[in-house]
Amino acid sequence: MPGSLLTYTIEKSMKIGPKAGFLVSVGHSLLELLLVILLFLGLGKYLETPLAQMIIGILGGAVLIFFGVSMIKDVVQGKINIEMKESTTSKSGGIILGSALISASNPYFAVWWAAVGLGLMMNAYNLLGLAGVVLFYTGHILADFTWYMSVSFVIGKTRRFINMKVYRVIIIILGAVLIGFGAGFLVASGKTALGLMGA
Q: Which residue range forms the structural domain that includes residue 123?
């Protein structure tokens, strides 16, 4: 589903090229590995609670708004450019951490894992034991790697045909999209909070 991580992938692919998709997928899959372990240990019932969804939504909304504002601010201050050479290790680490934060900031990510992913994982466990969980996780992240690397490849290979003026407009739009996702999460969390207070 199109969302904040896809927006982040496009933005980073525009900046450093096809390598971004792999780095985004690594960060996302590491977070998912941690989440699979925690769900297997019994965290799922807590993630499904309205309080947990509200907290994740508030923190997540704030993170996404921060990322979006930072992107727009970099455009305004002239700090962005399209890098045609390979990125450095530190930048790679930043993208891996950024993708993990973007994923964690999406409350629907945690809810999906608690409600759907946990059920699929337990089916795999009941069928094949721990090997089933490993196969489930491997298949899931292979789908993620395939999708984000494909998107990144297309964006990264066509970025050289985009001039800086168009690039700046694209980054502003992507930043605004992240702000929009963040605001949506905050509004949803506010409604959850009102529901909790009224309960």
A: 4-193
